[in-house]
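Field: COMPLEX_INPUT
Field: COMPONENT_COUNT = four
Field: RESIDUE_TOTAL = 410
Field: MODE = joint
Values follow.
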Amino acid sequence: MIELAILGILKEAQLHGYELKKHLRKVLGPLSNVSFGSLYPALNRLERQGAVSAVVTDDAGPSTMPMTGSLTGEAAAFRSRLRSTRGPRNKKVYGITEVGERRLVELLSDPADDERTFGMKLAFFRWCDRPTRLWLLERRRAALLERLEETRRALAAREGDDPYVQALMEHDTESTMSDIAWLGRLIARERAGDDRTRETTGGRP
Amino acid sequence: MIELAILGILKEAQLHGYELKKHLRKVLGPLSNVSFGSLYPALNRLERQGAVSAVVTDDAGPSTMPMTGSLTGEAAAFRSRLRSTRGPRNKKVYGITEVGERRLVELLSDPADDERTFGMKLAFFRWCDRPTRLWLLERRRAALLERLEETRRALAAREGDDPYVQALMEHDTESTMSDIAWLGRLIARERAGDDRTRETTGGRP
DNA sequence: GTCATCATGTAAGCCGTTACATGATTGC
DNA sequence: GCAATCATGTAACGGCTTACATGATGAC
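Field: COMPLEX_OUTPUT
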């Protein structure tokens, strides 16, 4: 989950931990919510696995801006004038490696999509190919259809004596249906190969 | 969370752990999802706290049916012919105590309502009074309004280059608005004092 | 000179899960 | 007799949070 978020963000820009968190929050809003206490260990874990690589910098250098340049190229130049392994202003700027890119695709495609994981995956959908996207969307829709069924069974089985539970389940049913319809639209768009996915209002079928 | 679920269910019927889980699933559908590995420890915890009390029974006795009779009354009679403290058919039938009822109300009113807690609370809304219900509903609505704001900020801040993130955030906005409207209806109903939402009030007859 | 912010980490704890262990009862 | 289900529990681990520790930098 958190590794997916990290890799997804680092695929676009090289950042250090502190920035990463802000970036995540800015880009994904309330959908992401990592704390430093899990972010830094996760970064170290990923570094040990070779999925990201860090460069300890001395100056404010290459951070906020989405870089196009290669890290291993010029950055190696001033890697020499790093101060010590610890302490701030020795920011550890992380970049994704090839291993990391493979891991990202793996994380996107493989694991079971529970409630909260799917949103995160969707946020990084651009990093996997259309067949995988379609497969994920359809699996998600199937899961929601199942959930809908179960909620309806539960609704039917009730003696209807509690209006709050009733209201809760009815709203859950409606929300789930709305989600399913939304997924249906995404699937249709994906199938149509319409690359202007962003178009919401008018436009093409 | 799990304690709330347990106490909420036990307030209506005396059950043993195994039944409790099934009951929970049947009544709340996909909204509840406890595993035995957390259920039994939680029950023991609650028993230690005096929030529930267990009677180890020998026969199939008072389980599935929602009982109206008092546990401490007749049940004490055949408490004597229990076999041993362990092993099935020595089911531990749990009932809520006064301490437990107070704890239930406390759990309903007090804690911060994160995403997933609120649904559970709402499911047991009948066990708290109207002012508390209103307060909870309004707090929840306020939280969702904040979330809505943040999502919209994030939406506005984007350079609009990723259609998937865009779709995700737009859908999140719509879902949140729908939730807010739903809460609005619940609040209105609550304010109107519409008691087709079942008479609960303070004391039991 | 002190306060807010930037920056990186560790430690403890919470709340749940899966997997395992154990055994009784029921149905065939 | 054997499998499925009922019934209760323990152990290990997972993934996250909060709180703590540390220190540099910049603004005033």
